[in-house]
Design brief:
heterodimer; A: about 525 residues; alpha/beta; Nucleotidyltransferase, domain 5; Hypothetical protein af1432; 3 domains; 6-stranded mixed β-sheet; globular; B: about 725 residues; polyphosphate kinase like; Endonuclease, Chain A; 10-stranded mixed β-sheet; 8-stranded mixed β-sheet
Chain lengths: ~525, ~725
């Protein structure tokens, strides 16, 4: 068969949906069936912190049905993901267990950063448009039930991405009691989100001119582009005028009116209002020229990942680079020296590649190491004492798009123990969830970072060229330098010893002075 | 109703729908009276008027009675309150029944006798030999299944079942001196034929006698020890609306079964008695059934003329019947390729019963056994007994395909039938959905999902008629078979929606009621209006079964007032009035009543030359637009569009079977003076046969030239005021 079929299930805050995709090199990703069932899981978990039995049962019923639909299409693979509603529920693991037991489906809870990365991948998978836009200042605004994610791009790179807990369902629930006390709902929502938004702008956007804004999230696109001639996602671009007109059609209307006028369910209409206000507020604040609403969602991102994994097609956009740049930008925000980490990036990668035959690590690990290199020193921003502890805390509190919680933890611990004595496994399990495999991964990262760090002890980027080679019990590191390397060489012994301990091979430095 | 239409929605601009319906039944009666039609065909029409009237009373009159009982006094679109409507209906139906029996007694029965079939009006006319034959027949076959019931102080008035024929009698104890009589009743068994044929007196005359006469003749055997004072047949009609509270009905299936039992007990809304019934007997019936005088029909002949359909079926008399038409093969399918290959070549247009219904059956059958088919989904509404489609669906489920069938249990009078099929399918492993709460699923759609070399492909059949292979021989319906991607996507969404999932974000091509259809039709009408206002050509041709939606009618008025030429082909109810000055002078309405029941819905909009044509399951009635899941689909390929337009064209050209609605609400046949005799239904029969023959002779070529009608229909020029 020249194509694969793929099922993507998303358990969201107010809807659980299944999309069946047909993926082929020729036609790309093509949705052939979509079913959605309204169920406000977020209503439970955002207000009570857990999801009740009845909802879980209902969810399982729907998923059983989804499974049947996927069987009908004889899908070649599937992905089932859950986002904030289940993520924030205390009984999340029990729910997953119950789902597995009744439906046989393995549901993965996505961390916010994974979720956003996926949603962003879905947008970026639309050829052409995205790449063109992000050459200039561009904000991607991704709204769901629980929160909003704003990612800023400039000069084709991701600069920053931040999550704020102002999702449409969450806002609706929060304002439930206040609603009766005002006749200006718009104002109420704006007041609620104003502070977070201006803080974000002052901290991260500053004087960058936002030319384009990409609005993403459920039903906004369909609400604006009701005309089927806008089926091509890349043409769904609006002017500010048109956007204002759309907003006026929604503002000030009751939920019932909105439902009738737009032919949508009342539940959706009740979410449409806060969504529109949030989108509108952001657009007004950031003042872009163009507004693009591609109308993609997580499931498309999952299909995209599946297609990549099955070598159906390769991404035009370098997503891994986004993760690294994002990490680098965080590092710079915490006053880390960019030349230093760039230099370390090169040496660390060289060391990683050389040790591959020993560790059997993957490309994903390589990416994580790069992120760890970028962030290993951020703790200094707070103070020179307890750098490791501070680095760890900073990393754990920052969003690094595209990484799971577990991956972030490895990176955070690696950064910590670059500075502090490396603990024994028995000690580390007291404060983290590391199993031995991941413990060893942290150790390998620490060893490489320490060595790479040591090779640029002076922070003067003396190394012009590096090549590494694994030879019997040694790893030969050939370095070309222009100036004296005495400081580095003289102080390198502890790093070499630790590296040897971790990898079982001894680094041997071979210097070459060039003029 | 949208404000822009309000000025066109005055009550004086509408006919009452019930009275309009009676007009329709009168048009059928007109066929029964038409001496140019073969005699036995006329029997059929006479029978249909009778069964139609029964259904009308059970549903429509009953509903009006309900409204009266609940003091719901809102006037209808024509400004009539329920009470006024009932009065008008009774006036009209009394007149109609009189007409019906005049025709029966002075036309049909004498004519039948002339051609050699003697229908005995009463047992008193029998010869002694015949009488003794009857008596023997009674003893052997009838007597054992009769259950006579008498009423006295210890036995209350028995339950008389809806629509059953009964014989009521007054009996008196033999030898009793006080002259007191008792009421007794016996049902004419529905398990026995309504009439039997008598032994031939001579070769040239055959004779039949009705079962009620046979029983009446022998009624004294039933009440031994009593003397039968008088005996007369009677029949009652009860309120049949199924008042199911769906919100409370957790399981619709169980609920409908319950309600079917309840139907026997509904309020009596009509009593038919033999003309000349004994006043004392009548009084008892009146009291017990609590009927008013106007609800009583005194019948000058046999009660319930539906037996005439059976008379039509007796052997012989072929020269008095229209030869049976054999549906023609579909030209696009006259080759050895499988149906999917043929559909991939282009949309296939089907016009039943002129073309065979077999391709639709084959579509499901082949899908059931095709190894690449993943799923079959279908809506089933009024399925025939021993339906090959049901068998194919069950087979498909057994072959491991995912089969979803929406079985609409709310199809009136068919519920019992539907429940049986539903359970049969469930047993075979199909996923059966029992309709949607609050909405009747009336759409006719089949989706076949097939995994092919280059992707998933969806094949869809969309039709205007039910998936019922027996009615497909009698109803004129249209359909298409297509694998258009957009329609396939929509079809998937339709089934997701009726499986209880959210509506899709948007529809590509299908127009789906109850949410989107009304607005789309109004929009299409409005566009014609706009074009007319701009001085451009504008035209609407619409064919349907009933037209009674006030808003659509107002929109048509507004369009007509703006100069849009509107030609409507409405078989049954039409609440629109033609010829209102300044309002509907540009509108013509015609109704075609023929051997086949006109059933297709086709909608044509000129649309500034780009000509949009739609077909579907919906009439322009509030219930279709607001309370049902209906699908109307566009014809996207030029070839299929042309075929649908051709149907409209020929029907507008019909000079024989079409009756034209007059400003006074009556329907008149056209004056044939100088006009070509065109009978649309006959024309289509000839054309379909001819095309199949041509195709067969020409081998595999798909190109054919549609035959032109004998005379060009009035395709242009102002038809207003016709």
């Amino acid at each position: 068969m020249a194509f694969l079929t793929f099922g993507a299930i998303h358990i969201g805050s107010y809807e659980v949906s299944l999309e069946i995709f047909e993926i082929s090199r020729k036609n790309g990703i093509h949705c052939i069936d979509k079913v959605a069932h309204k169920i406000e899981l977020g209503h439970d978990s955002f207000s009570t912190g857990r999801i009740g039995f009845e909802m879980v049962d209902e969810l399982c019923d729907v998923l059983t049905d989804f499974r049947k639909i996927m069987d009908t299409y004889k899908v070649d693979g599937y992905s089932a993901i859950a986002t904030s509603a289940i993520r924030e529920a205390e009984n999340d693991l029990f729910i997953l267990g119950k789902i597995r037991q009744t439906t046989g489906l393995n549901v993965r809870i996505l961390s916010n950063s994974e979720q956003r990365f996926l949603s962003y991948k879905a947008i970026a998978s639309i050829a052409g448009c995205f790449e063109d836009m992000i050459r200039e200042g561009t904000a991607v605004v991704d709204l769901d039930g629980g929160s909003i994610q704003i990612s800023i791009f400039d000069k084709s790179e991701l600069i920053i991405t931040q999550n704020m807990k102002i999702g449409n369902l969450r806002v609706r629930e929060k304002l439930q009691s206040a609603m009766g006390k005002t006749d200006n709902y718009e104002d109420l929502v704006e007041q609620l989100i104003q502070h977070d938004l201006s803080l974000f702008r002052n901290m991260y956007i500053r004087d960058l001119k936002i030319q384009n804004i990409i609005l993403n999230g459920d039903f906004i696109t369909e609400m604006i582009f009701q005309d089927p001639k806008h089926r091509d996602r890349s043409t769904r671009i609006l002017t500010r005028d048109k956007f204002e007109k759309w907003y006026k059609r929604i503002g000030g209307k009751s939920v019932a009116d909105l439902a009738i006028e737009n032919n949508i369910a009342v539940e959706y209409a009740s979410l449409l209002r806060p969504s529109a206000i949030i989108y509108h507020k952001i657009v007004t604040d950031l003042d872009p020229v163009n507004i693009w609403t591609p109308g993609t969602h997580l499931q498309r991102g999952l299909a995209y990942e599946f297609a990549e994994a099955h070598d159906i097609f390769k991404a035009k956009h370098d997503f891994e680079n986004d993760i690294v740049t994002c990490a680098k930008n965080i590092a710079i925000r915490y006053a880390v020296s960019a030349p230093h980490i760039n230099n370390m990036d090169v040496t660390a990668m060289s060391l990683f590649d050389a040790t591959l035959p020993l560790t059997g690590m993957t490309g994903r690990d390589r990416l994580m190491l790069r992120v760890a290199v970028m962030l290993h020193d951020v703790g200094k921003f707070i103070g020179f004492n307890q750098i490791g502890e501070n680095s760890r805390n900073i990393i754990m509190s920052n969003e690094i798009i595209g990484l799971s919680h577990a991956e972030r933890e490895i990176i955070a611990l690696a950064s910590r123990y670059v500075q502090e004595d490396f603990p024994q496994h028995e000690d580390i399990v007291m404060e983290s969830s590391l199993d031995t495999e991941r413990y060893l991964k942290v150790a390998a990262f620490v060893a490489i970072i320490r060595l790479a760090n040591g090779l640029d002890r002076s922070h003067r980027q003396k190394i012009l060229n590096i090549s590494t080679e694994l030879k019997k019990q040694k790893i030969i590191i050939r370095i070309e330098v222009r100036e004296s390397f005495a400081l580095e060489e003289g102080m390198l012994q502890p790093e070499i010893d630790f590296f040897n301990e971790v990898f079982g091979v001894r680094p041997v430095i071979k210097l070459k002075r060039i003029v | 109703m949208k404000a822009e239409y309000e000025e066109y929605a005055k009550p004086e601009y509408y006919w009452n729908r019930e009275l309009s319906w009676i007009r329709f039944d009168e048009r059928i009666l007109h066929e029964a009276k038409d001496s140019t039609i073969p005699l036995f065909e006329r029997l059929k029409f006479e029978s249909i008027t009778s069964s139609n009237l029964d259904e009308f009373f059970m549903v429509r009159v009953a509903s009006l009675k309900d409204q009266m009982h609940s003091h719901y006094n809102k006037p209808d679109i024509a400004g009539m309150t329920p009470g006024e409507q009932i009065d008008a209906i009774l006036d009209a139906t009394h007149a109609m029944v009189k007409d019906q029996y005049d025709n029966y007694n002075s036309e049909l029965i004498p004519k039948l006798r002339e051609v050699g079939l003697h229908v005995f009006n009463s047992h008193e006319e029998l010869t002694p030999e015949q009488a003794s034959y009857i008596d023997d027949y009674f003893k052997e076959n009838v007597y054992p299944v009769l259950t006579p019931m008498a009423m006295d102080s210890s036995r209350p008035f028995p339950l008389i079942r809806n629509k059953t024929l009964n014989i009521g009698a007054l009996i008196r104890k033999k030898g009793s001196s006080d002259g007191r009589t008792l009421f007794a009743t016996v049902q004419v068994p529905s398990v026995l034929p309504r009439f039997i044929e008598l032994p031939e007196k001579n070769a040239s005359e055959r004779a039949i006698i009705l079962m009620d006469e046979i029983i009446e003749r022998n009624i004294s055997c039933l009440f031994l020890g009593y003397e039968v004072v008088c005996a007369h047949p009677y029949r009652i009609m009860r309120n049949a609306e199924l008042g199911i509270d769906e919100d409370e009905a957790a399981d619709l299936l169980v609920e409908i079964q319950k309600s079917l039992r309840k139907r026997q007990w509904g309020e009596v809304i009509r009593l038919e008695v033999e003309e000349g019934i004994e006043p004392e007997l009548l009084q008892i019936l009146k009291d017990e059934f609590q009927v008013r005088e106007p609800d009583i029909f005194y019948i000058p002949g046999p009660i319930d003329l539906t037996f005439l359909m059976k008379v039509y079926g007796i052997d012989g008399f072929d020269s008095y019947k229209v030869p049976k038409y054999i549906p023609a093969e579909v030209p696009a399918l006259q080759n050895d390729d499988d149906i999917f290959t043929n559909i991939r070549r282009g949309d296939i247009f089907l016009h039943h019963p002129y073309m065979s219904f077999q391709p639709v059956v084959d579509f499901v059958k082949q899908a059931a056994s095709d190894p690449d088919v993943l799923a079959i989904k279908q809506t089933l509404y009024r399925v025939s007994g021993h339906s090959p489609i049901i068998a194919a669906l069950a087979q498909a489920a057994e072959n491991g395909k995912q089969v979803t069938a929406l079985v609409e249990l709310k199809a009136r009078f068919d519920e019992e039938n539907n429940i049986v099929w539903a359970q049969k399918l469930e047993k075979a492993g199909c996923h059966v959905i029992y309709g949607l709460v609050g909405l009747k699923t009336h759409s006719k759609i089949t989706l076949v999902v097939r995994r092919e070399e280059d992707g998933i492909r969806r094949y869809v059949h969309l039709g205007t008629g039910n998936y019922n292979d027996s009615t497909a021989k009698l109803y004129t319906d249209c359909g298409i078979l297509t694998c258009d991607e957009n329609i396939g996507e929509d079809a998937t969404a339709v089934f997701n929606m009726i499986s209880g999932y959210s509506e899709p974000d948007r529809w590509n091509d299908l127009i789906v009621a109850p949410i989107w259809m009304r607005d789309r039709f109004l929009h299409l009408i409005r566009m014609e209006e706009k074009h007319a206002r701009e001085g451009q050509q504008a035209r609407i041709v619409a064919k349907m079964n009933s037209l009674c939606d006030p808003e659509i009618i107002a929109a048509l008025y507004k369009a007509s007032a703006a100069g849009v030429r509107i030609d409507l082909i409405v078989r049954g109810i039409c609440c629109l009035k033609v010829g209102i000055p300044g309002i509907s002078e540009n509108i013509t309405v015609r109704s075609i009543v023929g051997n086949f029941l006109e059933h297709a819905r086709i909608f044509y909009f000129y649309n500034n030359g780009s000509e949009d044509v739609y077909m579907g399951s919906a009439d322009w009635m509030p219930r279709n637009l607001d309370k049902r899941v209906e699908i109307v689909f566009p014809l996207l390929q030029p070839e299929t569009k042309k075929q649908a337009m051709h149907i409209l064209e020929i029907q507008l050209a019909d000079t024989v079977k079409a009756s034209i609605l007059q400003p006074d609400g009556t329907y008149k046949k056209q004056d044939l003076n100088g006009k070509e005799r065109i009978i649309a239904q006959d024309y289509f029969c000839r054309e379909a046969t001819e095309m199949a023959k041509q195709q067969k002779n020409s081998g595999d070529s798909r190109v054919f030239t549609p035959a032109e009608p004998a005379a060009q229909p009035e395709g242009s020029g102002d038809r207003a005021g016709q």
